[in-house]
Amino acid sequence: MVTAATSFGRNGLADWVVQRASALVMTAYVFFLLYFIFATPDFGYEAWKELYSQLWMRIFSLLALLSIVAHAWIGIWAVLTDYFTTRLMGPKATAIRLVCQLLLAVVLVTFLVWGIEILWGL
């Protein structure tokens, strides 16, 4: 069995499960935020600040952020792997794909650290 070193999960099934679970978390987060915005009569900075001062909301936001990172990594990895293996063949394709994956990893880690800093004030 061959395992790709740049994949997120251990195999395709694990990646599929992570993508579906992360999609559910992101969907729940968006629906909750929409509900909060439309159900709060005096929606503004104070309501937003009060919501995000709650521990459960910070954890929910962190879970959504982690879901975005995992979902993006698996999705872009699959697109890059499929595109560069079917459209471009050879060592150039592998080098370009790895550079793109490295750039994506840097961007995702940057967004993750930045999001954690915003949520937890670290």
Automatic annotation (TrEMBL):
Its cofactor is heme. It is found in: Cell inner membrane. The keyword Ribosomal protein does not apply. Keywords: Cell inner membrane, Cell membrane, Electron transport, Heme, Iron, Membrane, Metal-binding, Transmembrane, Transmembrane helix, Transport, Tricarboxylic acid cycle. It is a multi-pass membrane protein. Coiled coil: none annotated. Pathway: Carbohydrate metabolism; tricarboxylic acid cycle. The chain crosses the membrane at residues 21-39, 59-84, 96-116. Membrane-anchoring subunit of succinate dehydrogenase (SDH). NCBIfam families: succ_dehyd_anc. This is Succinate dehydrogenase hydrophobic membrane anchor subunit. It comes from Biformimicrobium ophioploci.
